[in-house]
Write a structure and sequence with these properties.
Strand 1, helix 1 and strand 2 form a beta-alpha-beta unit. The chain has seven helices and seven strands; from the N terminus they run E-H-E-H-E-E-H-H-E-H-H-E-H-E. The chain is α/β, with parallel strands linked by helices. Helices cover 28% and strands 26% of the residues. Bound molecules: S-adenosylmethionine (SAM). S-adenosylmethionine binds next to helix 3 and helix 7.
Length: 213
């Protein structure tokens, strides 16, 4: 297939404060929920769902959302405890955007290798013409043993074009944009891991944006 254009579009999440209109946004592997919380406060007409099997890092923000909006509350946020492998059927077809930011473990393996079962799960929660954004930050030295354990190939543009494009397509996602940018050039991606990783010059950040029909 023809190569996709280079980084002409920046990842969706960097523009989250500029998003307008309504819709449902799902953040898979939400961690401490920062992206969901901050985006929901900026976009009160959108509904945000943060999903993670590990709820402990979510304790602070999941308490905060129940306050009055003037005191930091966010009535347009819901957190669900689930792994991507077991997404509840109630979410089927509802998401206008799905985000996966700085995944690790089985979530990382799935999006970085194009695991069909997991990608189909992500597709299942999407509405028509939804957007999927995957942002991966790996340090080839520090993460070497994890990269080997998970069987992740080097995330080059060639690998994305030659392997991930067809794997994502088999699950119903058309990759419309992808890029690799140095962490030091990373703009304001509002997640806790983005903040941690931007200080590491060696860590390349790979992103993929895909759409459903
Ligand atoms: C490095 S943290 C990133 C958290 C957040 N997205 C951020 O950018 O700050 C990776 C997250 O992926 C979650 N995760 C790992 N495997 C998962 C799976 N199978 N399904 C859903 N989430 C998973 C972990 O629990 C963890 O919260």
């Amino acid at each position: 297939m023809a190569a996709l254009p280079d980084n002409s579009i920046k990842p969706l999440s960097t523009n989250s404060s500029d998003l307008i209109g309504e819709g449902v946004i799902i953040d898979i592997g939400t961690g401490d929920g920062r992206f969901v919380y901050q985006s929901a406060r900026l976009n009160p007409n959108k509904f945000y769902i943060g999903i993670d099997p590990n709820t402990r890092p979510l304790e602070k923000i999941s308490e905060k959302i129940h306050r009055k909006p003037a005191k930091g509350g966010a009535p347009n946020v819901l957190f669900i405890q689930s792994a991507v492998e077991d997404l509840p059927a109630e979410l089927d077809g509802i998401a206008n955007e799905v985000h996966v930011h700085f995944p690790w473990g089985s979530l990382l393996r799935a999006v970085a290798t194009g695991d069909l079962d997991v990608l189909r799960n992500l597709r299942r929660v999407c509405a028509r013409e939804a957007l999927l954004e995957v942002v991966i930050g790996l340090d080839p030295e520090r993460d070497q043993s994890e990269i080997e354990r998970l069987g992740i190939a080097s995330l080059t543009l060639e690998f994305i074009d030659n392997v991930l494009v067809s794997n994502y397509a088999a699950a119903g996602f058309r990759i419309i944009e992808r890029g690799i940018i140095a962490a030091s050039e990373w703009p304001r991606l509002n997640t806790s891991w983005a903040k941690r990783l931007e200080r590491n010059e060696r860590r390349a950040i790979t992103y993929v944006i895909a759409t459903t029909d």
